[in-house]
Amino acid sequence: MHLQSKKQMSETFLIGAMLAVVGGFLDAYTYLSRGGVFANAQTGNIVLLGLNIAAGEWMRALYYMVPILAFASGVLVAEAVKSRFKRRPAIHWRQIILLVELFLLLGIAFLPAGRMDMAANTAISFICSLQVESFRKVNGNAFATTMCTGNLRSGMELLFRFFQTREGMLLRRSFQYFGIILFFLVGAVIGFFLTELYGEKAVLFCCVVLFLVFLILFIHSEEKTDEKERMKRERLPE
Asked: Which tens digits make up the pLDDT trace of 59-89?
């Protein structure tokens, strides 16, 4: 069990909470400094796309199509990275995703607000897609770190089942969902204050958090290698 938990470091609550902070921050950041939009999820964009198509506003429809396509392409890129690097022991494929997110956010920090908001929001849609596709579980349960609707549904469902069965495991799983939502909220609060202070450059905060996640996964990969070597030595005949 100990070795299995090490293998799933990317699914620990710590990693999920840190990434949820990033998700909440980015939603607050795009709303406050990038034109009053939420770039993390695409439901609103799809609705607005449909409304503009119905109204014959083709150029406006294209405006909403771009972040949708960026989000869709992020899924493809994440899967391509996973397929290409999954069996490379030097670095975990999720660490590559984190580096891509980090460097894109570095670029976004230096895009001026106003005329470059569309580019920034499109890039953030792509980043959130990479993250939601690459980090999909916490302790074996399906989670999202860039949106809350599914987490809230799952948490409430488990809470209802707990009241029916009184199984402690269901309550713990429910609280994990609520915990991720709480950290998403914390990220939004931090995003509000830092964006008010630093404007478009506030997103550099997310770079710091993502780099810390990258380091945690890297340190863990070394520990896992040491554990495997120890087990091999234990199996060798004397």
From this structure: 888 888 998 999 999 999 999 999 988 887 7
Residues 6+ away with beta carbon under 8 Å from 28: 187, 188, 189, 190, 191, 192, 195
Burial environment of residue 139 by CB neighbours within 10 A (0 to 12, 13 to 18, 19 or more): middle
Decide if 187 contacts 20 (C-beta within 8 A).
yes
pLDDT of 1 higher than 50? no
Task: Render the burial of 74-86: b for 16+ CB within 10 Å, e for the rest.
Answer: beebbeebeeebe
Separation CA 169–CA 172 (nearest Å): 5
Q: Is the dihedral of CA 74, 76, 81, 82 positive or negative?
A: positive
**What is the Cα–Cα distance from 143 to 25, expressed in whole angstroms?**
17
Under 8 Å between Cβ of 119 and 111: yes
- Among candidate residues 208, 183, 185, 204, the one with its CA nearest the CA of residue 194: 204
| Alpha-carbon span 85 to 100, nearest angstrom | 14
**Whole-prediction pTM value?**
0.86
Helix H or strand E encompassing 207: helix 204-235
Q: What is the pLDDT of residue 209?
A: 98
Residue 125 contacts residue 39 (beta carbons within 8 Å): yes
